[in-house]
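Q: What would this chain look like folded?
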Amino acid sequence: MFRRVVVLLLMAAAALWAANLKLYLKEGGFQLVREYRVEGDRVRYYSVERSDWEEIPLDMVDLKRTQSEAAARQQQIDRDVKSMAEEHAETQAIHAEASNIPVDPGVYWLEGDRAKPLEAAESTVHMDKGRQLLRVFSPVPTTTGRGQLEIPGAHSKLVFHQPEQEFYIQLSDTERFGILKLTPKGNVRVVEELLWDSAAREMTETPTEIEILRQQLASDELYKIWPKQPLAPGEYAVVEFTSGKMNMQIWDFAIAAPHP
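A: My prediction, written as C-alpha cells:
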C-alpha cells in the first residue's frame, strides 16, 4: 500500500513537471514548450504547437523571466508533493490508531497500544417522590417535580492522572455524545438535574457539559474525544444520549489531584 502511494506521488510530481512551459521572448509574447535547453548562443525547445524541436537565438529569449517562472513552478510541485505525503502519513496514522479500537459499541482508552474499555454505569432517576431504575424507553415519572439522574458511589473506580485524557467512543447509534462533570452527593454522583412537567409530558435535562474536541476516525461511528482544556480533579463521565429521550448511556471516570 505504501509503495503504491509513493508511486502515485511521484507520478503526480512528474505530471506537474511535464506541464507546458512558457518560453518568454524579449519582443513580447512567448512560445509554449514542453521543455527547453540553452546550447551556446541558441535555445533549443520542443514546441507544443508544432510537436517538434526548434531553435531560436538566445538573445531573443527573456531567459530570466522564463527561469523565474520555472523555479516558481518547481517550488509549487515541491509543496504539493510534501502536502500529499503529509496527508498520507496522517491518514495512515489515523487508520493505525482506529485499528486498536474494538468494533463493539462502548468507550475505550489506550494504555500504550492496548484498548481498555470503560465500564458502563447503572443509572437511576431520583425524583421528589421516589427512585426508579432508568432504562431505555422506561416510563417517565407521572408527577410534576424535580429530580436528578444518578449513578452509585461517591467516587469512580477508574481514576486517571492525565487531565487531558483521550477517549474513543464507538457509537451504538447516531446520537449525541460528550463528557459531563458529575457532582458527588452522599453516596451517589449526580449526572444531571431533571425537571418533569407532567402537563406537557416533557422532561428538561440540565447536564454540566465539558467542552471537548473530537476527531472522526475510520468509520461514521468511531470518534476520538478529549477535553478542550485540562480537566480539574473530580468526577466525570463520557455519555451518549438523545436529548429529551432519557436514554443516556454513562461511562464514569475520575481525574486525580496532582501529587504535591
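The chain has two domains: 2-98, 106-255.
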